[in-house]
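Dear Dr. H.,

I hope your travels went smoothly. While you were away I took the liberty of generating a structure for the chain from your last submission, since the lab meeting agenda had it listed for discussion. I wanted you to have the full record in hand beforehand rather than looking at slides cold. The sequence, exactly as received, is reproduced here:
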Amino acid sequence: MDCHKCLPKDRGECPGTVWYEPGQIRYCFEQILWMVMTFAVKNGDGDWKIDSDFWPPDINNSDAVSSGRHSCPFEMVKCVLGELSLRLDRTGLAGKLLLSEQADRLETIDHKMLPYEAKDALIYCSNDWRKKMSFSTWKANRNYKRDKNITRNEGT
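The corresponding predicted structure, in token form, is as follows:
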């Protein structure tokens, strides 16, 4: 699987894998769920957060750990996980729900089985919407388009 060729329109259809290199991360649904499962830890308040200084080795290939072009092995890990944390933080309670749904699992959950709010957080985090609009604006815009389509379909 070549994650470098992943396109935003394909992100919901990614078959996923058991391990990703830091440089492969394109924030598709499967990669986000895998990172939450792999890097989520409980903080002192009992809430989940994303944190780590290392990337787990590939259990199928011991030579596969890659730090990309960065000078320190943990630098790219911090960049990738920092971006994921920022994206999740922007979603508020929906992001916390996504973390709690996936964090304790031993394998990634099918994104279609997530609660509605967690799925919204996953969709928002899997694209560059956070650079264009807040989660609440994105969600209101999405709900407006959905309601408009429902009304249009009911009229036929």
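Two observations you may find useful: Residues 135-154 form the longest helix (20 residues). Confidence is low (pLDDT under 50) at residues 64-68.

With kind regards,
E. W.
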